[in-house]
Amino acid sequence: MASVVRWANLPMQCDVRKPMAEPRNRYSTVSLVFHWGLALLVLAQVLLITAHEATEGPMSREFVQVHKALGLTVLILTLARIGWRMANPALPSPAGTPDWQKFAAKATHILFYVLLIGIPLFGWAASSAGGRDIDWFGLFNWPLLPITQSRDLAGTLMDLHKAAVKLLYVLIALHVLAALKHQFVDRDNVLHRMIPLIPRRP
């Protein structure tokens, strides 16, 4: 009995409490793949439509077909990215970030999603209204939307497609400027979150 009492009075030699998880300091690999993969696809879209406008004949039409197929791929990946983001919330803003900057960042990301869904949808609808098949990388013909076929409607939808692309350019420029501000003015680790090769500041 005395030995039991002595054992009970001994100081604890280990702490059985689970250590608190450290906060994430960068986005996951899946998030990085979505972010930079979509960025590269958007760049490819710009190059494809530029090549289309600079050429004529079958080659020009081929650039358009690849542009359409990539656009629908962007649509699918954007929807998948939204699903991933819902299951994996964005990292919080750095401490001390003004509320207006937090609001602007959130609004910018939402608008990115809206445009990356809306732009392909407008293009898809324009092709459907024009009765033009969409060849998805030679694998199958993407189904056209069940809308009225009309040259005027197709032209209107294409105008909306182009207007949304211009808005996307503006948004990308603002996004890049904001990232550079965080890196060289605020000198925080926001850019490190999306580009892990950039050293993390202590």
Automatic annotation (TrEMBL):
Domain called Cytochrome b561 bacterial/Ni-hydrogenase: residue spans: 26-196
Record flagged with keyword Nucleotide-binding: no
Entry keyword Cytoplasm: no
Membrane topology annotation: Multi-pass membrane protein
Entry similarity comment: Belongs to the cytochrome b561 family.
Keywords tagged on the record: Cell membrane, Electron transport, Heme, Iron, Membrane, Metal-binding, Transmembrane, Transmembrane helix, Transport
Transmembrane parts of this sequence: 27-48, 69-87, 107-126, 167-184
Protein name: Cytochrome b
Location within or outside the cell: Cell membrane
Name of one Pfam family that matches: Ni_hydr_CYTB
Reported cofactor(s): heme b
